[in-house]
DNA sequence: TATGAATGAGTTTTCATTCAT
DNA sequence: GATGAATGAAAACTCATTCAT
């Protein structure tokens, strides 16, 4: 019944709606992402949403999933083989800039924060975030392996802290229209990273400070 | 005309509504904090809200303000005189537990994240957050003063990072019902703090790790 | 029980509320003459209205009655002894200017047109207008008495037409902010009145116009 | 995209809502013409109004416009070629009866008088009334042309007076349920019209009445 | 696939009115 | 006499969703 062509057309239509949903979330937030608004953004009829998705909630989740998976692939590729803080900070700065510029991260965050209402929704959003925690842990382990900190620092908690920091920075940044503070933070990170790398790959000796 | 008794009665009525708003935000999120829901939570008539506040938005802002000022005072007192990481982490853990238990922090966050929609609202929320950035910077400076890091680490950016981290942790924690990950993070912090304090108050010597 | 002083105070309070109602009607129309708005205009509490009047409707009727009786007395006095069109138009122009300037006529009209909703209200408003029809008829009779038109023209219908004209002119005039058209009409009336007076007090002979 | 059939369906739906609005205005007045009431009158859902019109105000204006244009066309046709008062009064009596019977004139008047509140609305209503002033002036000119009154009587002001009279009569008539007074006025007009026509088309000679 | 029309339940807000003081 | 607080009902309008085509 459903030929590959059919599937492709259907997928294209869904993608169009998802894109409109992300744009609307970005511009108007979770509360403003109504069926009418999304349809207006995408230039199609409200009812079309219900032809392709069960409900608005389902559409927003699909949009979050699509964005999350696409970005995770990008992040994986960009951080492939990175084992030191200096290049990590450099790459993360670039990735954050991409995210901030496109506005899709803001859209995704809207879905995440907006989903607190229903426990069921919350559960499903969490499932979408899990790969990010795993990925962050993976990167942290790569940084720590072979250093004196490997035993000392719990990679899992550090990864969690990094994701939370990234999340918090983006949330707060959306209030500063110029993202000045977020950028300053990244710059400070870049300045301190070489020093931190030195510390990471050295033997530490602590001398009492009288 | 308006005796002190009058003022008190009025303030009490306002406080009652603000409390209902916070409870509703906590239980149902920003989108669920409707006039009807708040009135139901507080056991009063919807119209009473409009007798004491100009609009729902105004009420939510008042609630955020009330919470923010009350908690900031509490944080200031709790961290008074703290100059080392170890007691800082201990106090912060306790404060976070208070916040998490009462649910008001979650309520406040709902207002913050929910306010992204309107630029004007965003502006007003930012004004309420500013004292927190200032307070965080003050605490960070107290930790760094007199150490080798004083010149090295930009206190302002570090303070911003801490607020963002705290904010991000709380946001993510609201998805884990048991707050397991957040607690694990605090525990790791407690474990590492004494070591970090040692580093902070020592002269560092880096020996290359062959 | 109720001394004359009491009565006077009470009457003064009522008058204050009635004045506020008229001002509010004038500025905001029938729909805008809410309890809150009237109280704000008069600088007293909403509840005070209900202490002195049964309901808003009752207050508006009282206001209409007060205005109607006061103005009718003024009109009676001004048109006393007038038996010709020329002075009649001159006096009416002056009276209309008074009414237009004070804005109370507009207020009264709001009550009249606004009262169409309820048959009972309509009935009561009509009762207040009846003296005006009678007065207009009286004036018309004074103009016609002793002329050839006395038998020809039905005074009652003419009086009705004049009241309706006056009413219509005022209604339409409230759309022209400058009342230009209404004033032009009065001026034309003044110009034609002497001619009409000539006709009124002459024997007419009609000569066919070939 | 939008076939003629589509357009027709949409127009029919709008017409249905406009008709319901007029009926509701007629029965319940401006203040009673609420979304709920109009929907109940028309037997459709409240929300449908907002699907076809931007707001209640917009709907009422559309209703006024529709009525005004339809009736103006009817009046134009009926008074086509009329140059004497006698047939004019006869036709106007018939037209007024049509208007009074259908109740739509009352509805239209509700919008007009109700629109005093907002200056913007007032402006838009005025625009709809302008063609009526022009039409009335046109008719008046037709009556006066070639008579001795042509130079004497200002057609524009007379036209304004006629519209105001018509307007006032209708407003007052809505208080008399039987419209007795309005009808009496029309009857008197019919009785006097032939005489007035004689006067209009004669040379006047005034003889002093001793 | 896609659309315009339609709906029931919900939103914020305002109203007239009452109550306790 | 007068007031601030409080309320139930209703206003305009919007939402997610469905239906017929």
CA-based shape of chain A: elongated
Distance between the termini of chain A: 81 Å
Which strand-content bin applies to the residues of chain A?
under 5%
Which architecture of chain A does the CATH hierarchy give at level 2?
A: Orthogonal Bundle
How would a textbook summarize the main sheet of chain A? none
CATH class annotation of chain A: Mainly Alpha
The overall pLDDT average of chain A reads: 91
If you compute it from the alpha carbons, what radius of gyration of chain A comes out, rounded to the nearest whole angstrom?
A: 21 Å
The CATH topology label of chain A is Tetracycline Repressor, domain 2
Per DSSP, the total helix count of chain A is: 10
* Total count of strands of chain A: 1
From the structure provided, what is the oligomeric state, counting identical versus distinct chains?
homotetramer
Q: Pairing-aware structural class of the strands and helices of chain A?
A: mainly alpha
Structure notes:
Four copies of one chain form a homotetramer. Chain A has helices at residues 4-32, 35-42, 46-52, 56-78, 85-102, 104-114, 119-144, 149-152, 155-173, 180-200, and one strand at residues 202-208. With 210 residues, chain A is mostly helical. Chain A has a single domain, classed as Tetracycline Repressor, domain 2 (Orthogonal Bundle). In chain A, helix 7 (119-144) packs across helix 9. The first copy, chain A, is elongated and about 65 Å long. The model of chain A has no long low-confidence stretch (mean pLDDT 91). Chains A and B meet through helix 1, helix 6, helix 7, helix 9 and helix 10 of A and helix 1, helix 6, helix 7, helix 9 and helix 10 of B.
